[in-house]
UniProtKB/TrEMBL annotation:
Belongs to the short-chain dehydrogenases/reductases (SDR) family. It comes from Mariniflexile soesokkakense. Keywords: Oxidoreductase. InterPro entries: NAD(P)-bd_dom_sf, Sc_DH/Rdtase_CS, SDR_fam. This is SDR family NAD(P)-dependent oxidoreductase. The keyword Repeat does not apply. The keyword Oxidoreductase applies.
Amino acid sequence: MTKTALITGATSGIGHATAYEFAKQGINLVLCGRRLERLHTIQEALGKLTHVHILNFDVRDKTETFKAIESLPENFKQIDILINNAGNAHGLDPIDTGSLDDWDAMMDINVKGLLYVSKAIIPQMTARKSGHIINIGSSAGKEVYPKGNVYCGSKHAVLAITEGMRIDLNPYGIKVGAISPGLVETEFSQVRFKGDKIADTVYQGFQALQAKDVAEVVYFAVSRPAHVNIADVLMFCTAQANASILNKSI
Ligand code: NDP
Ligand code: 8X3
């Protein structure tokens, strides 16, 4: 039977690339994000490969999140695969000068948003005793780097929550895992540095992971046989050996 996947943060980067990998395999898609115009464009493109429904909401907003997921039409209501991908870093500052707004954004989106979306979808999975949840973690969830403080904290939380989900949902036969990349060349640094030109230097001088590299691993994880659960993947570009950001001038 054709499966349906809901992907948060599908308007760019890893989420968009994952949507494309899934569409090529004929997986039905529910694509989420705040930028409606992009959602329409992606729906039109991927609609040539599979069935696509879009949901336009901000994962920080509990009410909006539940309303959006409840609004799914009958043919998209059953979510077999949930990819919790929406997230970002905001700022790269020492803890003593970091901004409260940046901290709120990272905890509200990366941690609480992931929980809201999961809470809206898990009941249907437990009722059916099947489902697969992949949370996009980060190497920053395994290791802390200078000035990474709160972003690293949010991603450590994602990995802890992933483990908790896997344990609690195991009796229902629901698979839960995390994919944790290092530096991936997406809009991530544009967001982190708020459009500052320093963002252009982050991926200079080496070949960073591309969104497609991560998307292929996400598809690998969801396409394993029923008895196999990919619990945790840490992946780097060849030039990166640990979670430290390579460009020391940043
Ligand atoms: P992008 O900035 O390219 O994509 C982020 C996505 O998240 C966008 O689609 C954005 O959509 C969505 N998003 C952000 N805030 C919200 C919100 N409040 N509500 C709903 N959607 C939101 O970055 P990446 O693709 O790189 O990031 C995807 C995930 O991968 C994140 O969780 C990130 O932490 C993680 N990651 C990234 C790495 C990297 O180096 N790039 C490495 C390791 C992990 P929209 O703005 O339309 O809402
Ligand atoms: C993103 C990886 O190292 O740019 O999670 O913070 S990093």
